[in-house]
TrEMBL record:
Keywords: ATP-binding, Hydrolase, Nucleotide-binding
Pfam family membership, one: CT_C_D
Entry superkingdom: Bacteria
Protein name as annotated: Carboxyltransferase domain-containing protein
Carboxyltransferase domain: residues covered: 2-84
């Protein structure tokens, strides 16, 4: 969709300057601003079902890490092994509004899968 090679998409994503703008839609869905323009895509015309928790998704100039398995119309570009929901009632989410988020490349083995996806 971007016209970029997969590695160029990954590099663009990793170079993003992400900040937690707000929480919404589902528990722990931290909407991250700062998605680089070359990979900013509109939402899909139709949602994909059963997108697993931990998916890194992008759309409309934003990025987020899913916390639940659910449908989404956003583009899946990777996976994160780090849960956003902490289980701690005093601090239920890993991030606070205003936090800066930096993604880094990890090996597929860190996800417990051989899919080759990156976060």
């Amino acid at each position: 969709m971007t016209g970029l090679a997969p590695e160029a998409v990954a590099q663009s994503h990793l170079a993003g300057d992400y900040h937690v703008a707000l929480y919404g839609f589902a528990p722990g869905y931290a909407y991250l601003s700062g998605l680089p323009a070359p990979i900013s895509l509109p939402r899909k015309a139709a949602a994909l079902r059963d997108v697993p928790a931990g998916s890194v998704i992008i759309a409309a100039g934003q990025c987020l890490i899913t916390t639940l398995t659910m449908p989404t119309g956003w583009w899946i570009i990777g996976r994160s092994p780090d849960p956003v929901l902490t289980g701690d009632p005093a601090r239920p989410f890993r991030f606070e509004v205003g936090d800066r988020i930096r993604f880094r490349r990890i090996a597929a083995s860190a996800l417990g899968t051989a899919s080759g996806e990156r976060s």
